[in-house]
């Protein structure tokens, strides 16, 4: 489905460009540093707000397209909850941020930068979410998904594979792709988790990650500190918890909101083509909150 009166655009700045996203009306930007990002959005707050408003108005009239099939989705089938549109515009459980992940992954596969569906090997540290289901349905048996169940006696281990992203059980070079959606902020040792991502990816493999991002800061915002497996974490300020489908009442503790320094950490570990992809698409219903673009971390082994 085409959105009338809106021209597709592609702009790249600040880092090596990844594959161009599928056709339809969208914008894609690549940011390799906080300076590249700031230069685009400095003094553009009014324009960003206007872009978000116009995007929502067009979606309300025309609906969106499925990110994998391009089939039209009517406006009445989309659940919208303001003001955090990054986590809204939900259809069949998939929100704006998750459609951005699927669009980016589709572009990499279509461009030959990753193996095709049914041949690709993927690790996903979430097993019961709509995104996990969508990836399994699309990519096939090569998708291995897990949940974080640290208690060895947890009966849910009989149903879901347990993995700790800070200490994965997989051999080196096991996967072509690792997709981490809203997990990095919960890791008790983020640098260890990034090192594990590098270790289990094959040469040329790709890491795609979404997380709450302190895009105005170089340093991460530290919310809690791990003090050991038998000790409660040290909390700085008010504890922050985000939704966890396995623990809907308790949620998951936030340890950090990563800043731009995460790109330095990835480069130091040995990743290449490190940067953030900013994706905005009216056609596919990809919009964020304070800025129009959903930001996804992308790095290649």
Q: What this model shows, in words?
A:
The chain is α+β, with helices and mostly antiparallel strands and 301 residues long. It has a single domain (27-300), classed as Vaccinia Virus protein VP39 (Rossmann fold), CATH 3.40.50. The protein contains 6 helices and 15 strands. It has helices at residues 34-41, 45-62, 96-110, 130-139, 190-200, 261-269; strands at 27-31, 64-65, 72-73, 122-124, 143-145, 175-181, 201-210, 221-222, 224-225, 234-235, 241-242, 252-253, 256-257, 272-280, 294-300. The strands form 5 sheets. It has a 7-stranded mixed sheet. The protein has a two-stranded antiparallel ribbon with strand order 2-3. A two-stranded antiparallel sheet has the order 8-13. Strand 9 and strand 10 (234-235) form a beta hairpin. The longest helix is centred in the first third of the chain and has 18 residues, at 45-62. The chain is globular and about 55 Å long. The chain starts with 26 loop residues before the first strand and ends with a strand.
Quick summary:
This protein is of the alpha+beta class.
Mean pLDDT: 90
Quaternary form: single chain
Q: State the CATH topology.
A: Rossmann fold
Radius of gyration: 19 Å
> What is the tally of helical segments?
6
The helix/strand series, from N terminus to C terminus, equals EHHEEHEHEEHEEEEEEEHEE
């Amino acid at each position: 489905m085409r959105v009338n009166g809106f021209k597709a655009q592609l702009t790249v700045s600040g880092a090596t460009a990844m594959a161009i996203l599928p056709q339809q009306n969208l914008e894609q930007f690549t940011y390799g540093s906080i300076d590249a990002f700031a230069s685009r959005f400095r003094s553009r707050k009014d324009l960003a707000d206007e872009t978000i408003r116009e995007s929502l108005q067009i979606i309300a009239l025309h609906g969106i397209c499925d990110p994998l099939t391009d089939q039209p989705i009517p406006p009445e089938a989309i659940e919208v909850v303001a003001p955090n549109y990054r986590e809204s515009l939900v259809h069949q459980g998939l929100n704006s941020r998750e459609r951005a992940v699927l669009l980016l992954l589709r572009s990499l596969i279509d461009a030959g930068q990753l193996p095709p569906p049914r041949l690709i090997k993927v690790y996903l540290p979430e097993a019961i979410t709509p995104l996990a289901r969508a990836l399994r349905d699309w990519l096939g048996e090569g998708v291995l998904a897990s949940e974080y169940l640290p208690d060895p006696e947890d009966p849910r281990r009989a149903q879901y594979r347990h993995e700790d992203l800070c200490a994965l059980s997989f051999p080196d070079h096991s996967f072509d792709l690792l997709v981490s959606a809203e997990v990095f902020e919960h890791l008790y040792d983020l640098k260890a988790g990034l090192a594990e991502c590098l270790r289990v990816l094959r040469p040329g493999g790709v890491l795609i990650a979404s997380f709450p991002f302190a895009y105005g800061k170089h340093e991460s915002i530290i919310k809690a500190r791990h003090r050991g497996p038998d000790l409660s974490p040290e909390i700085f300020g008010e504890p922050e918890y985000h939704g966890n489908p396995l623990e809907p009442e308790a949620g998951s503790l936030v340890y950090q909101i990563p800043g731009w320094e995460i790109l330095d950490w990835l480069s130091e570990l040995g990743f290449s083509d490190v940067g953030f992809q900013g994706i905005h698409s009216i056609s596919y219903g990809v919009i964020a909150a304070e800025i129009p673009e959903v930001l996804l971390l992308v790095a290649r082994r």
